[in-house]
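ok here's Transcription regulator, seq below lol
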Amino acid sequence: MPYSIGQVAEKTGLSTYTLRYYDREGLMPFVGRNAAGRREFTDDNLDFIDLITCLKATGMQLSEIRKFVDLAMQGDATLETRLNIFKQQRQAVQKQIEQSQKYLAKLDYKVRFFEAACDAGCEAAVSGDCDIPDAPIVIDDSLRVNRAKVSGR
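and the structure came out like this:
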């Protein structure tokens, strides 16, 4: 059963504008057209669009995706080349994950730091080393702010 562009947009979460743009950019040469010239998508097309979405979401440029699509359209003669593309993209995603984990560790540290600062009533009372994410957060009790004074009580 063929799907209209609106149905594909609904199924994929991509806008009809994005789908048309991808088609104009040569990312969907596999999509057929009916007698009226309207795009008709198949389940296999949806799978390929999902792959395009994955590649884009992992940072691959549209020009690189277009090259991949061109290779896929050539068939089995390009299997090794396509395998290498996926291996390279996998490495790129692995690096993104590692960097994101470092950012997450820093954010976790900052959450602990600012929770301690809120508890102490000021940042000056709090110390730690954000370059060591698991470093302990230390509160200097002599620098704590008396909340009653701050709130005017």
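fwiw The radius of gyration is 26 Å. kinda neat tbh
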